[in-house]
Design a protein that fits this description.
Layout: H1 2-8, H2 15-24, E1 29-32, E2 38-41, H3 43-49, H4 53-56, H5 70-81, E3 85-94, E4 97-108, E5 116-121, H6 124-170, H7 173-197, E6 207-209, H8 211-223, E7 231-235, E8 243-245, H9 247-265, E9 274-281, E10 285-288, E11 295-297, E12 300-306, H10 334-344, E13 348-354, E14 357-364, H11 369-372
Helix pairs in contact: 6-7, 6-10, 8-9, 9-10
The chain binds adenosine-5'-triphosphate (ATP) and magnesium ion.
Length: about 375
């Protein structure tokens, strides 16, 4: 590796340290020159690509990745914009290579014109995506059940509810309590069926949505109800463009995230429950559009942060699956619904959690000129 390593950083005093650091990094890193020749590959990259550094020094990227791979688009865009760009869910497929669900970050190297540093990983965002994709399968299996429930249960349920109401009016005080119980329980089933129904495969109707209005709406709702007494902080980027999405569904997403945050913050170690809502714009966040070679830009992010104890270890691997809950009264549908809606929007959700700080971060598409014309 040292032969082309020495070409990377000719300066005697800073070269070796920086290279040793890159070499020791557990994340695959390669440096490409203007012709996509490998100028550097760390140990993790050798393993990842299955080719030794001396082997890589002889070849170019197009020798191991087909030229129509979106990776080349990413590299071209890094050169053109001179900014860091990341691609999620890439497939690197060739006779020599088989990698799916890869996140690649490409960065320009200011001193080296047209060189591109690639960092490859299946870390947080890609893992979150996996979970989300795995969840889609689970969601589909409940979709059929949801449709049947909605059809077959709702009608008789309203009959039961109506009959209980009639009884309430005509019986004595003791029996009235029982009739009320029937009505309340019927309402509870109805609410559950409504939530299940949200898993149905309906295409979403999109319009420009002001995400700050959604956040403020839900915050007010929360503060007069389940999040009473919890301190809220807002760190909004006021210059954000509108999200290209469905307002009511985005309300549902934020509501479920804030409800979870409130329930977690109640157990804050310092007994000062706090929720922070953050928004911002982040260039170069993209995701594959399933079944196409298109990439969807997801430049807007929304983070719901709480200071609760963090996500329990046993829940983590199944976080977005339906019916997974650590709460006595929880149904475990909140995050499953969140993942479903975010997926329908073509967005992405990432989770970062430790005791005292849990972040749920949404990445969403914004209105483009093309959408505005519709
Ligand atoms: N902010 C959070 N902090 C810690 N744990 C969380 C957080 N959000 C979710 N979880 C964990 O993930 C589980 C699943 O959350 P989800 O919203 O899907 O269901 P639930 O909150 O248990 O029930 P429901 O939302 O249906 O009332 C929770 O039971 C909890 O263990
Ligand atoms: Mg919940």
């Amino acid at each position: 590796m040292s032969s082309f390593a020495s070409r990377l950083l000719p300066g005697r005093n800073r070269g070796p340290d920086a290279l040793a650091m890159l070499g020791a990094m557990p994340v695959p890193v390669v440096l490409l020159d203007a012709e996509n020749r490998f100028r550097f590959a760390n140990h993790a990259a050798e393993q990842f690509l299955g080719i030794s550094a001396s082997g890589l020094a002889q070849i170019r990227l197009q020798d191991i990745v087909p030229p129509d791979n979106p990776l080349f688009l990413l590299i071209a865009q890094v050169r053109q914009t001179e900014a860091t760009i990341s691609d999620h869910d890439l497939t690197l497929e060739s006779p020599r290579l088989h990698k799916v669900g890869i996140t690649v970050q490409g960065s320009p190297l200011p001193e080296e014109a047209n060189s591109v540093l690639l960092v490859m990983q299946d870390a947080s965002a890609a893992r979150a995506l996996d979970r989300q994709l795995a969840f889609r399968g689970a969601a589909r299996s409940v979709t059929g059940m949801a449709a049947i429930l909605a059809h077959e249960v709702k009608n008789p349920l309203s009959g039961i509810r109506g009959a209980a109401q009639l009884l309430e009016a005509s019986v004595g005080a003791d029996d009235r309590e029982l009739a009320e119980l029937i009505r309340d329980e019927a309402d509870r089933i109805r609410a559950l069926v409504d939530r299940m129904e949200a898993f149905g495969e309906k295409p979403i109707v999109r319009a420009p949505v002001n995400i700050h209005r959604v956040l403020e709406h839900v915050r007010k709702l929360a503060q007069t109800g389940f999040a009473e007494g919890i301190r809220f902080q807002e760190q909004y980027d006021p210059s954000l463009p509108p999200v290209w999405g469905n307002r009511d569904q985005l309300v549902q997403v934020i509501l479920n995230l804030i409800k979870n945050a409130a329930e977690a913050a109640m157990h804050a170690a310092n007994s000062r429950p706090e929720i922070t809502l953050l928004t911002g714009f982040q260039h170069g966040m993209r995701i594959a559009v399933p079944g196409t070679t298109q990439r969807l830009e997801l430049p807007l992010f929304v983070t719901v942060r709480d200071n609760g104890p963090g996500i329990p270890d046993d829940i983590r691997p199944h976080l977005f699956e339906p019916f997974v809950t650590s709460k006595a009264a929880g149904s475990g549908l909140g995050l499953a619904l969140v993942a479903k809606i975010v997926g329908d929007h073509g967005g992405l959700i990432e989770v970062d959690s430790k005791p005292g700080r849990t972040d749920f971060r949404l990445h969403l598409p914004v209105v483009t000129e093309k959408d505005a014309d519709k």
